[in-house]
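Reminder: ligand-aware prediction takes two inputs, not one.
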Amino acid sequence: MNPFERYGSLVVISGPSGVGKSTLVAKAREELPDLSFSISCTTRSPRPGEQHGREYYFLSPEEFERRLQNDEFLEYAGIFAKRYGTLKSEVLTAVEAGGHILLDIDIQGAKQIRAAAEVSQELARIVHFVMIVPPSLETLEARLRGRGSETEEQLQLRLGAAKAELANYRLYDYIIVNDDLERAAVELTAVLRSFRFLTSTLKKDVFQ
Ligand code: ADP
Ligand code: 5GP
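Here is what comes back for the chain with guanosine-5'-monophosphate:
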């Protein structure tokens, strides 16, 4: 058996809607192809091109509630009048087996995972918190408008939430400014790569 066998990592990535999380993560995955995304559940409708089981599990409000009552979520939140949640089954077994899993979740979810890690050493040694921020709120608005996926009402909701979310950046261990896409992708990849060398994820004591 390899004496340096490790647990993987669970990386919480947050940042306002439209900041470029999906774009940056797609770039990081070109360098680190074994990174996988946890697929969340949501009660919002799919956008054009989104597929059930690929971007999200799109659930009815009743099905979401049933899973919540069944204690199936690691964390969950109400965002923009819809519900979003991470299934325990999507992440914990995979990280135990050495997988590197990314969670693209909002700050409410990040706070729940922080709190859980305070009482669970197992979770504390595998979880990391990364915040992606725009260079300015004006840039964020331009990107959201450019993506063209939201109604004006949804867009205003998302911009309002962005301000509150950005003010909480100190909850995270790492902050990456998505100004120049190529540079930000290199930075994110470096941060994600560093989690593979932590002593805390070694499964056994070595050199004893
Ligand atoms: P998120 O996943 O955070 O909601 P997206 O990855 O969908 O955001 O990015 C929102 C929009 O901004 C997309 O149209 C994307 O192509 C664009 N974008 C992302 N990063 C940059 C960047 N550094 N410079 C310019 N545009 C960007
Ligand atoms: P969108 O509707 O643009 O896909 O996502 C909106 C917001 O929901 C983003 O900030 C994203 O990070 C967050 N989100 C997506 N999935 C989850 C989840 O499982 N849990 C939580 N807490 N937030 C999520």
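The mean pLDDT is 94. The CA atoms of residues 43 and 62 lie 9 Å apart. We will return to this case in the review session.
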